[in-house]
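User: These chains co-purify. Model them together.
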Amino acid sequence: MISYTTQAEAWPVNRKASLTISRPEPEFRIEGLNVYAGEKHILKNINLEIPRNKITVLLGPSGCGKTTLLKSMNRLTDLYSELKVSGHIFIENDDILNGTKNIPGIRQKMGLLSQKPFPLPVSIYKNVAYGIRLKGIKNKQLLDYNVEKKLREVGLWEEVKDRLHDSPERLSIGQQQRLCLARGLAVKPSIILADEPTSALDPVSSKIIENLFRDLKRHYTIILVTHVLRQAQRLADHVVFMNYGEIIEQGHPRDLFREPKTPQLKEYLVDGN
Amino acid sequence: MNRRKIIEQNIFRTLCGIASYSLIFMLGFIILIIFYKGVGSLSLEMVTKPPSGGYYFGGDGGILNAIIGSLYIAIGATLIAIIFGMPAALYINVHLVKRKKLQNAIRYFLDALWGIPSIVYGAFGFTLMLAMGLGASLLAGIITVALLITPIMIRTFDEVLSAIPMGLHEASLALGSTNTQTAFRVMLKQGFSGFITAVLLAFGRGIGDAASVLFTAGYTDLIPRNLDEPAATLPLAIFFQLSSPIPEVQERAYAAATILTIIILIISLTARTFSRKFTRTSIK
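Assistant: Joint model of the two components:
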């Protein structure tokens, strides 16, 4: 029943896509998303399309709802009793907010990088292998291969190859953040959700992460939350400027940063620079 | 820093120091007195033999019956407490994370259960025992002590779990774990040292409690061989010997207390070493 309606809905979208070939289908389509925390309306009627294989930056002052928006994309908002979420978020025409869904499966389509690294309380190796094992892969060689591959992808392999079975606690915070990225990539997601991933890092480690993102966008859609204007300028392919739970302005960074249309963004650009 | 602040600082440092060191001193003092009074009557016979006739009047034999009985009851009850308590604490912190009110209600009830005096558990266990058609027995003792220590076990473990940052919980879910996988593969590992503390606290409370086993486990000079036989316990052995008018028997009570203390120390040290191996990779 569900698959039938999904296919039926997919029809017109596909036809539309074939008519306008120049524009690829978005990774995420968010429609009428509202989030309340008790009485407080923290996300107000968000409508947004996240382009595929690009870095979309959610920019805005602290407390504007960026992180909540990011967390509703992989339903981590489910963990907070005070949050009431309504609206639609589509991934491949599948509305992840409505109906009973395989939520772990949805979350495995996205890798999460949080403000502070939270390595799992297991060895470096097992951190990366964790998600792969959850997918039912037990073969030692396959695990070894994937762990090495993902650690290489984030440039951590050379630094940790001799202490794979040690606790990640001894790693620097920047290395821990890259480990968390490798761990997320190991689940083979198509999307990376990054919530101010460099805010706890030193400038050198931040730069490593930023460079990684530039490489990774060839294979992944990246959604980056930041309040650092310069980071947005360095990385963004698409900028979404938010304030007080609303999308104020969005577009290509060149247009947005050179000619802001709204007074809020103008003010933010002036203060941020 | 001005003079006033320095004086204030010094006064509070001294007060805090006195408070902490006096506690350590008290603990040392208690252990010292028990050892001092008991060490004279400690003998190999005492820990290797059950009482032979007239032990409580100064006759031969030992308290092996109470040592074994206490270990049986405490270990049995702790196992039951782990079987129910560990999943319960994980459930409260992982599955119920969104239901704050229910969490608080459960915690409130557990705290209330923790606060009930052990003699009340003894009386409850006694009623339960009669209803089940059991006599004073090892099984009744184990069940009663398990009832007494399970809330302690859950709440202690729960306190540690609730202090684990939400970010770790989110990280585990974001990788695609279910709640149950998050509970057993991530939270249990991260909180493992807290789990060991909880087990130790429960075990210590269980092996040291006299009132809950008074009616339910009974007392006997024999070593129990079956769950339906009565069992002696160290706290009751101490109690019976201490209430004797014969000085020699009273001294043996202190020796029994020494043995009880040593058992708890051994269990605690082993568990700590064991937990250190397990928590090698946990994040501090």
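Confidence is low (pLDDT under 50) at residues 1-22 of chain A.
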